[in-house]
Known about the structure:
- This protein has helices spanning 14-25, 39-46, 96-113, and strands at 6-11, 28-29, 56-60, 68-73, 86-88, 116-121, 131-135, 141-144.
- It has three helices and eight strands, in the order βαβαβββαβββ.
- It has two domains: 6-73, no CATH class; 86-144, no CATH class.
- The strands form two sheets. Strands 1-4-3-2 form a four-stranded mixed sheet, with helices on one face. Strands 5-8-7-6 form a four-stranded mixed sheet, with helices on one face.
Amino acid sequence: MSREIQVTFDGADPNALMEFWCEVLGYERDAPPPGFDTWDAALDAFGVPSAERNSRSACHDPDGSGPRLFFQQVPEGKAAKNRVHLDVRTAPGLQGEERMAALEAESRRLVALGATRRERAEPDPPLSHGFLVMADPEGNEFCLD
């Protein structure tokens, strides 16, 4: 039996991190609960103080094929390299310089959104077709693959 997964990110600013990943992946912010037009209206009705409204956020793949992403506020900053990371499949099927050019173009787009470029791994067939190591605005590593 297969299971559905959710990927959870810890961070200081869940809403900003969620917006970044929506732009990276083409995801959409989760809709407010039924009966509410906005999240603010729902949070008002639930009595959530304004100081706690950026404590969590979530988004999803509008096509329903990717996992839901959940963002939760934590007091501590990132201290070490991720043990698990996302590979954002930016150039599937491309090889050589065409592939690396596509990865570089996506890297420039994401840097403009707040990402940091960390490293470029050159193609080394058949073991690797090349990739870029990036970090989101809170330092979580991911790869453009």
